[in-house]
Amino acid sequence: QVQLVESGGGLVQAGGSLRLSCVASGRTFGYAMGWFRRAPGKEREFVAGISWTGITTKYADSVKGRFTISRDNAKNTVYLQMNSLKPEDTAVYYCALAERLNRPYDYWGEGTQVTVSS
User: How far is CA 18 from CA 64, 90, 93, 98, 116, in A?
Assistant: First the structure.
């Protein structure tokens, strides 16, 4: 079955940057990929998604202009470049797969912690 492993989380100061990576294994050909996050005391929310081709992307309004999602299908990897980080970006970030962009995500990674200090 599909397995997803995230990496790249850590502690940064406000205004700093991080790049998250997610490596997929198993039957991932043709799948859209995305990132979600869950902040302390809040529900899980969608952050960004990308189609199989990488041509179509989607972002939450809260991160638009600051975060960039990309993928390298030769490496079965999706990335989330996070710039101009804010304390409210602090959350556990999860990688996920879906059959198509804008459809429910079926597979999830274990998550990686991102903490942004003031």
Answer: 15, 12, 12, 24, 10
Write the pLDDT tens digit of every residue in 60-117.
Answer: 999 999 999 999 999 999 999 999 999 999 999 999 999 999 899 999 999 999 999 9
Alpha-carbon distance 2 to 15, whole Å?
Answer: 35
- For 22, the token pair is 């997610």
> In this structure, what token pair is assigned to residue 16?
């700093």
Query: In sequence order, which residues have a C-beta less than 8 Å from that of residue 15 and are 6 or more positions away?
Result: 84, 85
Average pLDDT, whole number, for the chain?
96
Is residue 17 a contact partner of residue 86, using CB atoms and an 8 Å limit? no
Eight-state DSSP code of residue 14: T
